């Protein structure tokens, strides 16, 4: 058996695990043990990166023996059954006080279940969301760990050493207990879906409304990236739009099949929001928009359906583009507000203490939604930690005030000219729903009471009532059957 020379280990050496192991090894004071189910990946990694001085292991027993106590191992394997298999194997060779970290994209309820089961053995289990893709894993991801306070004592310095740094601060914080880290990572991905969809809608409107080529629209995005929209996603949008296809000479975006894929974390965000009763409509529209795009057979048979009477005709391209920019910014504020709302609701439901301002801060670097704008969110929660709706913070009120006319013009223009803008439209509808003094929910309550005696409350007195619809239609006091 090898001697215990490593302070951290990585199990699973596909693209994410090998990059994370290299990142760990590059930081002062770390010696990294590595293990993969099939030996070839371990051999390849160790041979390709002698500078990392990895400690390779070829069985779980060897892996455990090569780690100093408390043993700390990060699992980076295919989420699901693979994660369970590795946890089973590690709990067989680890001891109470050791720490198992799952850095994969696990569903937070799985993490809650695993944490409970592993805790019973005396071993600590930490579900940690890791964002930033393969490059982030290598150079510095944004890390969202859950788990116990005890494990954070050992894990904190290690994760701080490998995380991205934004404005001098490492992009990692102890999010909360058990599944809190994976919950926050899930919502991060949901926001990412919304942000990408909004950018795609902005591109589509400019492409259809002006004579600009993708390369010229790339310039628009590059310009936007110098202002309040500055973010990684805007930056890479410009890169993608500027790319020419080598085979055809066409803009690459024109030869890519228009059917968006998804790995499921957006759907989890929406399913969870539905369970929690949180209206994340912008995120949901983004998930559904990808889903619609991926039904070519339905799109083919629908192509000749009637549409708008007139195509989009823009007289002043610059003014139109500025309207699109403002509509994008306002809709983006809504998407983030909804995402943070879901985190707050999740924290309440699962008894986590989550500092929303700290979450905004750790998303400023390393992750896909990294953006300047997150500083404003962090400021908003620092000023008012229990802010009920993020978009009511003064900075966002100001931005939404500036965007009002443009946002409404763009949504109306899209509808009038038959251009789908589901995320723009639903964000505006959410916004107007929130600020409405009276909602037609009153009518819905009346309907529910009519067909199901579901009862209602009145605006002018307390208690609960039912109208005897099938009788003489008088109102009686009733038990609340909401
Ligand atoms: N790719 C990304 O951008 C990204 C970003 C964030 C998070 N993640 C998450 O990070 C994790 C790793 O992602 P990845 O793309 O590097 O790899 P992956 O393709 O998701 O998984 C491949 C790895 O899992 C191992 N594995 C699968 N089943 C196993 C089992 N039953 N027992 C032991 N090992 C098993 C494989 O071992 P073998 O070599 O033996 O097959 C291989 O090392 C995933 O949870 C993923 O969702 C990925």
Tell me what you see in this structure:
With 482 residues, the chain is α/β, with parallel strands linked by helices. The protein has helices at residues 15-25, 39-48, 60-65, 81-93, 108-119, 133-139, 149-162, 180-209, 214-224, 232-242, 252-255, 265-276, 281-293, 296-302, 317-350, 356-362, 374-383, 394-416, 422-435, 441-452; strands at residues 8-11, 32-35, 55-56, 72-75, 99-102, 124-131, 142-145, 165-166, 169-170, 456-457, 464-467, 475-477. The protein folds into three domains: 8-174, Rossmann fold (3-Layer(aba) Sandwich), CATH 3.40.50.720; 185-435, N-(1-d-carboxylethyl)-l-norvaline Dehydrogenase, domain 2; 440-477, Single alpha-helices involved in coiled-coils or other helix-helix interfaces (Up-down Bundle). The chain is 54% helix and 9% strand. Helix 8 packs across helix 12 (265-276), helix 8 packs across helix 13 and helix 9 runs antiparallel to helix 10 (232-242). The termini are far apart. NADP nicotinamide-adenine-dinucleotide phosphate binds next to helix 1, helix 4 and helix 6. NADP(+) binds at residues 12-17, 36-38, 77-79, 105. Catalyzes the oxidative decarboxylation of 6-phosphogluconate to ribulose 5-phosphate and CO(2), with concomitant reduction of NADP to NADPH. GO terms for molecular function: NADP binding; phosphogluconate dehydrogenase (decarboxylating) activity.
